[in-house]
Amino acid sequence: MQKIYLDNAATTRVRDSVIEKMQDALQSFYGNPSSTHSFGRSAKSGVEKARKTIAKSLNAHPSEIIFTSGGTEADNMILRCAVRDLGVKVIITSKIEHHAVLHTAEELQKEYGVSLRFVDLDVDGNPNLKHLEALLQADATKKLVSLMHINNEIGNCIPMDTVATLCKASGALFHSDTVQSIGHFVWDLEHTPIDFLTAAAHKFHGPKGVGFAYIRKNSGLKPMLFGGSQERGFRAGTEPFHNIVGLEEALIAAYENLDAEVEYIKGLKSYFIQRLTEEFPGVLFNGLSADMEKSTYTLVNVRLPFDPKKSMMLLFHLDLKGIACSAGSACQSGSSAKSHVLTEILSKEQLEQPSLRFSFSKDNTKEELDYVIQVLKGFGAN
User: Fold this and answer.
1) CATH code for 16-256?
2) How high is the pLDDT of residue 271?
3) 8, 15, 235, 377: which could form a disulfide with 231 (CB 3.0–4.6 Å)?
């Protein structure tokens, strides 16, 4: 049986070069980066080198990069500290954000009495920018906008420069969960006036358990974790040196190979859409995931014209055939609830049809996609 991994939006295979870097770090650079002896200084030097590498890739300053355990911690930290330290009274977001943002905002509403406002979405899941502007200009309260660059389930891309400009014009802060886009798209944070963004290494062929927050300098945010003076006092806790150098290597490799890998993965996505359309009359694509210009090149969310009564068995059937994909975010896979993203943009009848997210990487092939089509045809015929 073939084993085909098409769930790269959930996590990616670690690059060989990243594993080699991490192995060397674990074997040779085991000193605590906060220690003053040579072992510690060597590790500390590696941490700061990684910080500079990341900052350079984003056209940011090294002091604006704070290492975290991943995107969820970074999202929590930024939203919580913005409310606590910067006087944010209103959080403007959308109902299709990652739960790391949605659940945090809901808790802040309970704890601090923050007003939570949702920007309207069109039928494809795009934020209505006129409504966003109206929300920003509704009153003079301090606001923070949190909108993800790329939706992790349907792949829609929001116009970051436009949203950032609207926020700046209204004196609002702008945070974006960019977990699905760092390492896949080029960033210039000198050009885009965003205040905060978040990233996770395991989304671009790095290790799990490490990521970073970009916090624009002189933001006024104070620490959420207290203890030692690590991360310039902003985030206490011994830095996981092996994970940080793994993140650095993954980001270097991602951007060194970006043009070739984007072209290759775009070809896979385009081919898969073509095959699905040919083989399954009536197939539909959720959000803008089939639009090669307005969605990420890394995923497609497919609504298949199968009997709704069999939809619950589709993922199980694919798994039995060695195919890994998902029905939504991996973070909610243990829940019986339907995707909160699709629930917002599809009708009750549309939700009954099986929807699957297939997400691609440099490691996939057209032959693998042909096998997926064959398995789906077999399921649909039964």
Assistant:
1) 3.40.640.10
2) 98
3) 235
